[in-house]
Amino acid sequence: MYKLIKAVGDALVNRIARSLPGWQGAVVEKTFPARASYRPTPPANAAMLTRALVARLTLPVHFQPYHIYSLCNVHVTWDGAVFNNFRLFEPSIVRRSFLSRFQDTLLLRQWVGEKVKVSGTEIAVCHNQWSTENYYHWLIDSLPRLLVLRSLYPGMKLLLPRVSALHPVPEFIATSARLLGFTDHLPLNPRQILSAQTVILPDLTAASLTQRPELVRQVRQELLKALCLEPGRAFRRVYAARAAGFPRNLLNEPEVEAWLQQEGFEKVYFEHLTLLEQVRLMQETEVLLAVHGANMTNLLFLPDTARVVEIHNREYSDPCYLRLASCLGLEFYICPCQGVDARLGNQSDVIVDMVLLKDVTTLALAGTRKVST
């Protein structure tokens, strides 16, 4: 019965939302111009890969102008969706396809349910539906937005996501926001809706899964400086393992680990480390090897001479980490592997080709060249 009532309610709210005119009343506080497109640097082991794969990995990255918006008398969900009555502010949604997630009875919670009111002060929203818990999307999507926000509104009160009423804001989110100068936080959990007189919302600075090189480099520089970390001797070889319960497991991981241990790699679970511990570890790392996933975001903190090896599903893996490495001028190596369940796409477990992994890793350990952007 509940499902039936909710389905009817969702359909009614959806119909009302679609019949309303587009959002009105948003003020563009500042517009930042587009920048020239660029083509990511090919993998350092491109000669081992097919031309089709290299071409797909190195498609040009294009950029559009982005803005800082000011919105009055609005409501905000814990994951950054801004709405008023039955209208969603589209720039607050990670992709247009996500609009349907919010055009339902969730929008009724502005009148019923648990509300948090902020009056007499402006509050900023710099995260979206992908950056509430995800390490990559927070560091690479949201932190550049904080830099943009800071250019007009330094030290502003910042809305931050809590994954539940019982858990605090993720440590890496609260710490990195503080390091960039935002110490005044308002945590919001999924049961709550923020009601605010004024919300400041910076756009994404680049399309999702791409990066503005100058902004990610600034994020890196500022976090290292704020943490008082200076590059030292890079001597560690790190294998970033995936914790139990995560997708993209290596089905022959014992064989992979045995060989990596023989080559001097240490196994690390980044999920068990604080942001400072992760950054400090990366500053001491000469080779980072990982399966495609958010833990690879830590290549942001590697020394300039470090190398990166990514194990990914040859059919589905997104080149976001190759792009990130290209922004930073790091040598990047690809070890494409076979997924075991095409129905799961990029979430499928994979089987590592040990011959290929040994060849790719041996090349990375030697360091074939130094790339630049």
How would you describe the overall organization of this protein?
InterPro entries: Glyco_transf_61_cat, Glycosyltransferase_61. Residues 135-309 form the Glycosyltransferase 61 catalytic domain. By secondary structure, the protein is an alpha/beta fold. The chain has two domains: 2-32 and 65-205, no CATH class; 215-366, Rossmann fold (3-Layer(aba) Sandwich), CATH 3.40.50. 30% of the residues lie in helices and 23% in strands. The chain is built from ten helices and 14 strands. Strands 1, 2, 3, 4, 5, 6, 7 and 8 form an eight-stranded mixed beta sheet that branches. A six-stranded mixed beta sheet has the order 10-9-11-12-13-14. Helix 9 links the parallel strand 12 (307-313) and strand 13 (331-339). It is globular.
Structure described in brief:
The protein has ten helices and 14 strands.
Mean pLDDT: 89
Beta-strand residue fraction:
15-25%
Proportion in helices? 25-40%
Structural class based on helices, strands and sheet pairing: alpha/beta
3D shape:
globular
The separation of the N and C termini measures 58 Å
Q: pLDDT below 50 for ≥5 consecutive residues: which ranges? A: 369-373
Count of DSSP helices?
A: 10
The tally of structural domains comes to 2
Major β-sheet annotation:
8 strands, mixed
Number of strands: 14
The H-and-E topology, N to C, reads as HEHEEEHEHEHEEHEHEHEEHEEH
Gyration radius from CA atoms, angstroms: 22 Å
Protein name: Glycosyltransferase family 61 protein
InterPro entries: Glyco_transf_61_cat, Glycosyltransferase_61
Keywords: Glycoprotein, Glycosyltransferase, Transferase
Pfam family, one: Glyco_transf_61
